[in-house]
Amino acid sequence: MLVNCVAYQDGRKLAEIRKEEISEYVKRPDAFVWVALKDPTPEELEEMAREFNLHQLAVEDARHGHQRPKIEEYGNSLFTVLHVIELHGDEVNIGEVNVFVGPNYILSIRQRTEHGFGEVRARAESEPELLKNGSGFVLYALMDNIVDRYFPVVDQLEIELEKIEELIFAAETPKANIKALYGLKHKLMVVRHAVEPLIEATHKLYGGRVPQVCVGTQEYFRDIYDHLLRVSSQLDGLRDMVITAMQVNLSMITLQENEVTKRLAAYAALVAVPTMIAGIYGMNFKHMPELDWMIGYPLALLAMGAIDGVLWFKFRSIGWI
Amino acid sequence: MLVNCVAYQDGRKLAEIRKEEISEYVKRPDAFVWVALKDPTPEELEEMAREFNLHQLAVEDARHGHQRPKIEEYGNSLFTVLHVIELHGDEVNIGEVNVFVGPNYILSIRQRTEHGFGEVRARAESEPELLKNGSGFVLYALMDNIVDRYFPVVDQLEIELEKIEELIFAAETPKANIKALYGLKHKLMVVRHAVEPLIEATHKLYGGRVPQVCVGTQEYFRDIYDHLLRVSSQLDGLRDMVITAMQVNLSMITLQENEVTKRLAAYAALVAVPTMIAGIYGMNFKHMPELDWMIGYPLALLAMGAIDGVLWFKFRSIGWI
Amino acid sequence: MLVNCVAYQDGRKLAEIRKEEISEYVKRPDAFVWVALKDPTPEELEEMAREFNLHQLAVEDARHGHQRPKIEEYGNSLFTVLHVIELHGDEVNIGEVNVFVGPNYILSIRQRTEHGFGEVRARAESEPELLKNGSGFVLYALMDNIVDRYFPVVDQLEIELEKIEELIFAAETPKANIKALYGLKHKLMVVRHAVEPLIEATHKLYGGRVPQVCVGTQEYFRDIYDHLLRVSSQLDGLRDMVITAMQVNLSMITLQENEVTKRLAAYAALVAVPTMIAGIYGMNFKHMPELDWMIGYPLALLAMGAIDGVLWFKFRSIGWI
Amino acid sequence: MLVNCVAYQDGRKLAEIRKEEISEYVKRPDAFVWVALKDPTPEELEEMAREFNLHQLAVEDARHGHQRPKIEEYGNSLFTVLHVIELHGDEVNIGEVNVFVGPNYILSIRQRTEHGFGEVRARAESEPELLKNGSGFVLYALMDNIVDRYFPVVDQLEIELEKIEELIFAAETPKANIKALYGLKHKLMVVRHAVEPLIEATHKLYGGRVPQVCVGTQEYFRDIYDHLLRVSSQLDGLRDMVITAMQVNLSMITLQENEVTKRLAAYAALVAVPTMIAGIYGMNFKHMPELDWMIGYPLALLAMGAIDGVLWFKFRSIGWI
Amino acid sequence: MLVNCVAYQDGRKLAEIRKEEISEYVKRPDAFVWVALKDPTPEELEEMAREFNLHQLAVEDARHGHQRPKIEEYGNSLFTVLHVIELHGDEVNIGEVNVFVGPNYILSIRQRTEHGFGEVRARAESEPELLKNGSGFVLYALMDNIVDRYFPVVDQLEIELEKIEELIFAAETPKANIKALYGLKHKLMVVRHAVEPLIEATHKLYGGRVPQVCVGTQEYFRDIYDHLLRVSSQLDGLRDMVITAMQVNLSMITLQENEVTKRLAAYAALVAVPTMIAGIYGMNFKHMPELDWMIGYPLALLAMGAIDGVLWFKFRSIGWI
């Protein structure tokens, strides 16, 4: 589905144009065309490939989807794959944005995501002196928008971890905690796969030999690179803490077993000792003077209670009960 | 066993030729010969080595088999070892494909695998404008075919992990889970050994100084490189989750022991308390007024039942039963 | 909030100047202006950006705050983000210091930290021959001051670990130990995130192509680099030991369970054996000679005591009690 | 001890020569001398050092022994340290081979190993066209021979792991398994220390600036490099699986404890319930109608048996017995 | 404290000189001065800094002490920090040696260590042809001496590990083992911090652009580099085995708990069964024929003994007792 198709010159919008006019505008020396597609059909993709003369391998990647994030040079044009991450409860939705950038065109294709780039276009159009930098600056604006949205995702995962941490130390739902930690680890892995490959790729847009379309905007791409490093380092930290939290949870479970064993031992003692005493006075010896005492029975009960009382306080003091 | 032996010129098939004619066609400037062998005898291999003037070390590697995946340059020719992975239930079958590529020949040898390359040949012949690129493009087509078949293997391993995950949280077959995770880890290792060495090797076919036969098709080899990275990152993720799943399984086992201990404690209490009461009324004291009561016995039974009832509800409420 | 605004020439203080005079002094060839802000409003920041002609991306970073530590070149000026770490009990407070450095100005902005740089200014002014090196030397002095304050933080964390270590081997508060270790791990991660990114960044200030403002003071920045490596290696060591301490704690918990189980077993035996003997003499057989003995009862009690005594010594000797 | 001392020219053996003649043959432009020593005395070593003009540091290394594997250049000669690994049951024997290579000599010294290089000499002499490459080719032949013998060692360790794996899942000898795994880990470490340092060293013999004596035989050294990578990757895999096997073993032990606890609980119940019933009918209440029944006793026994029967089947069905 | 102060020329000792003469000898073109200090006062240090014109940052590092090992270039001189490791029982003492090296002076300062360098001086003076290489060779001799003393330290740690290993598998002192392993890990970390940073630093003294004072002695520094790699690889191996030993110890503890539980279960059964039988014959049913039998009592005792005997052998055979 075609979302937008606009021609720009000198940082200002020329006109919304029809698809058929694209090749005409692309020829103008100082202008560039910005096309946005959403979940395009193979035919739409093929049409764009013809208009912009895109490389067949890149078009195939865009058609298949499910690529890893990357930035590839084809001659003097770039092909970029970015992941859009959306958390819906326990599900991580990974959308994909493919961007084809040439000296005088930029084609962005978003797939399996509701997140549009209207605000990017609006902001870009409101800063003509920056938009003058051409299609490379638009690529920056798109990447910046996508990368900035990684932060709330990571923050949400951090909040999730904090909640699990509390539960772990409360030690009341160990099984649910394991499950939650495992789920969190899984989500972290998915987000990581969206972020990591982009770091190295972005580095090539500002350091060393820079692709032609990015010349003049390197400092902007370095800014994105820096943001990606920040996300990555937060993810690393999270991953580290999740692993530790799993160990903590195992320790807490083992510790709880310890507590149970102790309590079990204590209560068993409280029952076993009176049983033993009762057993002794249940023996059938002819000559057991206590049995004939008037206060034998109350005394025996008293002894049982007293011993249990002593044991109780002892167990209390060593924390077994 | 000779599977195919065809000469090509300008991207089009010239003719199926006999082995004896190879050296003749190889001399033609624009033509190249594509030979496919399957589990060749040492003699067949030696014959090809003579026809194509292959390096003795590479031929020895092909004869011995069981090489790690690699791409080696010998003068202006390449020697490539690729692994073909097939999952048969719990078994991972590793076949080997050796490819010798020179400016005007390509010799592919597959060993210990049923998977042929008829479709590769068919597709290559149907795209003459690409096949014009010569033997380097055929190498790409073969590698692409082999690497693309890694994806379903990894997907299958991911499905396997998901199944084990469910069983882990169900916590009913801990022993079988350990075994399944260990087996999965082993398979991952095998697949990893097929994929990892190829990544660096493929990198050399498109970046830096590129071997002569690959010049002009670098972008295609970069595409393979990218696919290998994707496989590798999926494998990394899987490996990470398998390790975590093992920890989870251990935690679940420890947790289950906890449950068992608690239940054991609870039921022991339910039996021990009546036994203690019975013991008390089994004592032989002369003066135990309850013993003479008409309702002594029912009262005692009632007391036992009542205490057990209270205990039962208490254990219930704290989740021990 | 403006803290200071001073112009320097030839290593000596010229005058405290007003904000409006900055642009005038900046034009003088051998002079430089040193401005210090604290938690500035966006307007103050904007004003400074105009006076010093700062790059918009850097100004945005300073306004947003919460950047990772970094050193970025914008043309012939530098933008530096440093973290100030303060431990308040169990809380780690991360303040931020942004430094803009040009050939004839240095602007330091501290945010969310009470720690000022008055002493840095005093020391710098007392060494005119060093201050002659210009704004680059001031950057060094600021970084040196911040980095030197990492050492007491790391030392404090090391002391914290040592305290936990003692508690672990005392094995009396396993649960609190786990919590303390987890908290320590978290703090280490926070400190690490402040230190690690700075290492690579600082390396660029003395090795390879050095930014213009740092030329002539490389050996000073190498000194900072060296200090950062020291902090980092201490953090690595700490992290390693915390992980080990967690394992040790788990081992101690498991071991303690072992002890409890053994004691439980021993005491259970001490009660169970007399109960068994009592049970035997509680049997109602007609012909049980012992029952008629005058000393039957004392003998039975004696047997119970004797067996328990033997058991007691045996359990003692194998360390179960 | 001198094993061999032979002069070669143009790939063919000239003559077995005496030690005193070495310096004479070494002067001939196209000839080279190949000397083999075994566990030499310091004097023999010193003599060779004089004959071949060896560097003092290298000679010291050879005298001390116990070096890590390495390849060092001294001017236009090479000094190589290789480890020979031999498994004798549970012992790993590390022998050492030092090779000094110059343009017209090769001196191999083997220490603490019975493994000789007669077959290497025989093979080299049977291929004069390869031996023409001079002392560099002999170095290759020696290294190839040593490296090829790493494979059966690694295979043996893999077989050892497989045996332990079976025992782990059989779960009958957990203690012996731990010991076996620990021992295997130790052996892996030893083998790794023999292999790893050699990889980087060998890389220098075929890539980048190649030492003079290896020029023309680079492809042969690349072959060795490739074999070393294969050994290394097998070792990595083994190490990974050993670590996993240790975790599996711990899980199996914990699981077994689980089983024991369950069984213990089940059998305890089977004894405790009849004891409770017996206790009840052992009470001394005057009015207990069942006691007077003719069939009271058999009924009580029946009840005990019946309840135990029910419990038995229940425990069976949940797998506790 | 000044230990020595000697001038050398052409590899031979000229004279022991006074501190005041240093600057005079330093001016001679072919001579160099070798000064050794021990725990110097700030004043002594300042004096030397003046005599040799040392860089202020390096002098500050030497005054503060507690630097990480490093080798820094200041113009055409070097500043070296080395750690001297001494094991005193469970304590690791880290002394520090600072070496300032210029074209015609070498100043070594040792701090917090009793280990002197008299033997280094003696050996150097006994080899005039090597000492001719000047101050760079003296630096080598000092470093070589310090690095060679790392080997016995690592060997001692290896012996320590072996002792702990034996105790682990004996499984009699699990708590002490944990403590010992933790302590060993700590020591390893300390030693590692002394060795690791030196490796990279030493590499710069023989590879790439070599500092002026080391030119001509690169092969000697490569030898040190090689020794450091060996120490480092031993430390890596040790660290790996310590981690594994901790896991093994945990497994052994868990296993021991298993044993205890089994034994507990077995002995509990041996007591519980006779108790049950006694309970049965303690019931007060009127009609219990066995009670009237003459041999009832002995039979009951026999039954108890017989059942316990059977149980005993059964528990024996399955290894629970």
Description of the molecule:
Chain A is rod-shaped, with a radius of gyration of 35 Å. Chain A has helices spanning 22-27, 42-52, 56-64, 118-125, 128-131, 135-148, 150-170, 174-203, 218-281, 289-292, 296-317; strands spanning 2-9, 12-16, 31-38, 70-74, 77-88, 91-102, 105-111. A 7-stranded mixed β-sheet of chain A has the order 2-1-3-7-6-5-4, with helices on both faces. The first copy, chain A, is an alpha+beta fold. The interface between A and C is large, with 43 and 56 residues.
Separate helix tally of chain A: 11
| Rg of chain A, nearest Å | 35 Å
Strand content of chain A: 15-25%
Oligomer: homopentamer
Name the structural class of chain A: alpha+beta
Largest interface: A-C, 43 and 56 residues
Helix content of chain A: 55-70%
* SSE ordering of chain A: EEHEHHEEEEHHHHHHHH
How would you write the strand order of the largest sheet of chain A?
2-1-3-7-6-5-4
For the report, how would you describe the main beta sheet of chain A? 7 strands, mixed
In round numbers, the mean pLDDT of chain A is 92
How many DSSP-defined strands of chain A?
A: 7
Low-confidence stretches of chain A: none
Shape of chain A: rod-shaped
Spatial gap, N to C terminus of chain A? 69 Å
Quick summary:
The structure is a homopentamer of 321-residue chains. Helix content of chain A is 60%, strand content 18%. Chain A has helices spanning 22-27, 42-52, 56-64, 118-125, 128-131, 135-148, 150-170, 174-203, 218-281, 289-292, 296-317, and strands at residues 2-9, 12-16, 31-38, 70-74, 77-88, 91-102, 105-111.
